[in-house]
Amino acid sequence: MNNDILKVRDLQKIYHTKKGEIKAIDNISFSIQDQEFVCIVGSSGCGKSTLLSILAGLEEKTAGEVSWHKSDVRIGYMLQNDALFPWLTVLDNALLGLKIKKEDTKENKKYVVSLLKTYGLGDFINKYPSELSGGMRQRVALIRTMAIKPDILLLDEPFSALDYQTRLAVSDDVYKIIKKEKKTVIMITHDIAEAISLADRIIVLSKRPGTIKKIYDVNLTEAESPITKRNAKEFSTYYSTIWKDLDINVS
Amino acid sequence: MSADQQKYLKKIKIEKFLILVIQIMIVLIFVFLWEYCSNHEIINSFIYSSPTKIIATLKELIVTNNLLPHILCTLKEVVISFLGGIFLGLIISLLLYEFKFLSKVCEPFLVTLNSLPKVALGPVIIIIAGANLKSIIMMALLINLIVTIMNFYNGFINIDDNKQLLMKTFNASKLQTLKYLVIPGSLNTIISSLKINISMTLIGVIMGEFLVSKQGVGYLIIYGTQIFNMNLVMAGIVILVIMSIILYKMVLLFEKKYCKN
Predict the structure, then answer these.
(1) A62: domain CATH number?
(2) Which of B241, B245, B247, B236 is nearest to B61 (CA)?
(3) A210 Cα to chain B: minimum distance (Å)
C-alpha cells in the first residue's frame, strides 16, 4: 500500500547573484509517508533551508518535481525563531494563522484553546509573549502552526535558538505533541543527536550543492521519548556514521 | 522596604526636585535680569523690550480682542498640516514600502528634497497656491512630510524578517501583512516620530505665515517687525514658546497612552 503524501523528484535550485550562479541543491529525490517524522541533516550552507522553503512554496524551484498526495495540501511551517508578535496575547498569536486564512470560527478557536490548555499554557492564554520562557514561546509557535490543521509540518531548526537544556526539554515536548496529534513532519537540523532522537528516518545531505548522501531508517531499542532514545545502545553508532557522512572539517 | 532602599529612593527624589528648582531659578533670573537691564538702560529697551512691556502688550492684545483670533488661526493651520502630514506620510511611506522598485526610483529625489532648505521654495508656493491659507499649509507639509515619510518607512523596513516569513508561510496577502504585522509592528516608531512631526509642523506654519498671511502668531511677529514694535515681536515669540510647549506635551501624552513596549 502506498501512503506517500509527498514525492520529490530530481529537485534542483540555482540562485543567481551578481557574482554568478550558485547551485544550492541538486538531484534531490525522496518521498514522505503519512505520519512519518523525517529529519534532514546537513552542515551549514548545504541548502537544507532552501529545500524546506521550496517544499513550503516560499521559493521557486529551478527544476524537478514536488508532488503532494492532494492538490490543496495544508502546510504548517515553523521557523527557527518563534516570531511571536509582542503586541498580541498568547491566544491571539496562536490564532494568527486562522485569522489570515479567515477560519477563526468558534470551533477552531475552541480547538486552539484546548491545544494551549493541553500543552501547559492554560494560565498564559491572555498573557503577552514577553512573559513566557523560551520553551513556552516555542510551544506557542508550534500551536500557532498546528492551529491551521496542517497535513504536514515543516520545521526549520525549530530549537536552535534555545539553550541546550531547554532544547532537550522542548524537543521532548514537541515530539509528544506531534505524535499525539498524529502529524507528519519534515524537520531540518544540523544537530545529529537531535535528528536521531526524533526521527523515524534521516536524510543526510552533502555539502553544497546539497545532494542526498544517504537515507537512514532509525531503529532504536529505547523508543519511549527523545530523551530516552538518547540512551539506546545504537544511538552512538548512528551518530558516528552520520558524523562521517557529513565530513565536517574545520580548517 | 529596607532603610537603604528608602535612602536610595529619597536620593532620586531630591535630585529630581533640585533639577526643577534650578530650572525655575534660571527662568526667574533671566526674566529679572532682562527687566533690570532694560529699566536701567543697560540694554536698549526699545530694541530688546522687557518682560513688563511684553506683559503689557499681551494684556492690550487680549483687551482689544486681538490675540485669540491669531492663536486660533495658527492652531488651525498647525492641526491641518500635522494631521495632513501624518495621513500623506502614511500613504506615501506605505506605497514606497510595498513597491520596492518605486522606492529605489524615488530615493535620490527624497534625499535631495530632504537636504533642500524648503523655505527657498516659499516664493514659488505663493505663486502657485496664492496668498492664502493653502500656501501656509503647503509650506508646513513640505517641511514635515519628508521627515515623516522617512521615519515611517524606516519603521516599516525594520520589521523582523522572521515575522515577514511567518506571514508568508500562512499565505497572507499584502493587505493582511500590513494589517496584522507592518502597521501594528511599527506603531511605536510611528507614534514617536509624531514628536518630530509636531515641531516641524510649527516651523513650517510660522515660516508660511512669515511669507504670506493676514492673521496668525507669525503674522503678529512679522507685523511687529515692520512697524518696529519690538514689544509686539517679543510678545509673539512668548506666545509661540507657550504654544510649542503645549503642543509637544500633548503629543507626549498621546505617546505615553498608546506606545506600549
Answers:
(1) 3.40.50.300
(2) B236
(3) 23
B260 contacts on A by Cβ (under 8 Å) = 87
Q: Residue B135 in contact with residue B208, Cβ under 8 Å?
A: yes
Residue A251 has pLDDT above 60, yes or no: no
Q: Per the domain annotation, does A105 fall within a domain?
A: no
The set of residues, in sequence order, having a beta carbon less than 8 Å from that of B64 and lying 6+ positions away, is: none
Question: Please, what sign has the CA dihedral across residues A101, A104, A105, A110?
Answer: positive
Count of domains observed in chain A: 1
Q: What range defines the domain where residue A224 resides?
A: 1-73+190-251
H/E run at residue B54: helix B51-63
> ipTM of this predicted complex?
0.83
Asked if the Cβ–Cβ distance from B171 to A56 is below 8 Å, we say no
Taking the C-alpha atoms of residue A246 and residue B9, their distance in angstroms, rounded to an integer, is 59
Interface subset of A 36-65, CB within 8 angstroms of B? 56, 58
For A44-55, write each residue's pLDDT tens digit. Answer: 778 888 888 898
DSSP B212: S
Q: What pLDDT score was predicted for residue B260?
A: 61
Answer for the pair A124, A47: CB distance below 8 angstroms, yes or no: no
**Shortest alpha-carbon distance between residue A245 and chain B (Å):** 31
Answer whether A85 sits within 8 Å of B162, measured CB to CB.
Answer: no
3-class SS string, chain A: CCCEEEEEEEEEEEEEECCEEEEEEEEEEEEEECCCEEEEECCCCCCHHHHHHHHCCCCCCCEEEEEECCCCCCEEEECCCCCCCCCCCHHHHHHHHHHHCCCCCHHHHHHHHHHHHHCCCHHHCCCCHHHCCHHHHHHHHHHHHHCCCCCEEEEECCCCCCCHHHHHHHHHHHHHHHHHCCCEEEEEECCHHHHHHHCCEEEEECCCCECEEEEEECCCCCCCCHHHHCCCCCHHHHHHHHHHHHCCCCC
Residue A64 cell numbers, joined: 524537478
Q: Is residue A133 included in any domain, yes or no?
A: no
State which residue of chain A sits closest to B162, comparing Cα positions.
A83
Per-residue pLDDT tens digits for B154-213: 999 999 988 999 999 898 999 999 999 999 999 888 888 999 999 999 999 999 999 888
Query: Which of A140-144, B73-77, B159-163 has the highest average model confidence (pLDDT)?
Result: B73-77
Cell numbers for B222, please give them: 512679522
Residue A18 in domain: yes
Query: Are A97 and B180 within 8 A, CB to CB?
Result: no
Nearest to B169 among A58, A81, A87 (CB): A58
Contact present, B222 and B237 (Cβ < 8 Å): no
Establish if A249 belongs to a structural domain: yes
How far, in Å, CA of B225 to CA of B231, rounded? 10
Shortest CA gap B163–chain A (Å): 5
